[in-house]
């Protein structure tokens, strides 16, 4: 009988311990997933672009009113996010240009076009909306029957705007519009055909950048 009493007491004690353990046990709280971080626009980048340009050129009294052609070039720059969502930066680019026009025995080609600009942008995660402005430069080549050709580098100004999207943390794509005014340069100086040439152009460009 005593053995039965002791066994019952032991069983009761074990049941009490198990019950107390069940009460005190708390399963671990589920770990919340890390909040996604915003896209990082900061740093250097470089890339390529292509597009189409159109505009007008002047050669004294002859008006060349349909400059047009393709563009293909490269760009490099730096972005700095001063505070969310604002970004500032700078960029330089150079492109081979097929913009040209001719009237009679006179022709004008815009062989190269480039710019160095400042940028200010508004970011929304993987989107960047920006405006730009600065110095533009280009190679103007005038052609005249009997005299050959004369090319000059001209310097003017540019302004534009665009939108850029981050495909991955390193690869972005963009669509951009630019207006360029290269002013005027003297060609065939010292000859009977001496004249002032100039060009203005509009361009729509698409490009890809790699962020370092």
UniProtKB/TrEMBL annotation:
Its name, as the record gives it, is: Porin family protein
Q: Which residues form the Outer membrane protein beta-barrel domain?
A: 31-212
Q: Name one GO cellular component term.
A: cell outer membrane
- The yes or no answer to whether the keyword Membrane is present is yes
Alphabetized UniProt keyword annotations: Cell outer membrane, Membrane, Signal
Q: Is-annotated flag, keyword Cell inner membrane?
A: no
Q: Which organism is it from?
A: Kaistia nematophila
- Give the signal peptide range: 1-20
| Protein location | Cell outer membrane
Which family is this sequence assigned to? Belongs to the Omp25/RopB family.
């Amino acid at each position: 009988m005593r053995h039965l009493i002791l066994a019952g007491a032991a069983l009761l004690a074990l049941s009490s311990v198990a019950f107390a353990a069940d009460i005190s046990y708390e399963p671990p709280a589920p770990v919340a997933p890390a909040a996604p971080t915003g896209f990082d626009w900061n740093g250097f980048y470089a890339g390529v672009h292509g597009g189409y340009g159109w505009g007008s050129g002047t050669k004294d009294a002859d008006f060349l009113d349909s400059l047009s052609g393709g563009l293909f070039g490269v760009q490099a720059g730096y972005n700095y996010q001063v505070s969310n969502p604002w970004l500032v930066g700078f960029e330089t680019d150079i492109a081979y240009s097929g913009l040209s026009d001719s009237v009679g025995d006179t022709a004008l080609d815009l062989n190269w076009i480039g710019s160095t600009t400042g940028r200010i942008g508004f970011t929304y995660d993987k989107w960047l909306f920006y405006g730009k402005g600065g110095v533009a430069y280009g190679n103007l080549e005038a052609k005249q029957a009997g005299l050959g050709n004369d090319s000059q580098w001209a310097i003017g100004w540019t302004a534009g705007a665009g939108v850029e999207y981050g495909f991955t943390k390193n690869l972005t794509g963009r669509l951009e519009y630019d207006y360029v005014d290269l002013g005027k340069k003297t060609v065939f100086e010292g000859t009977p055909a001496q004249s002032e040439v100039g060009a203005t152009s509009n361009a729509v460009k698409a490009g890809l950048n790699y962020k370092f």
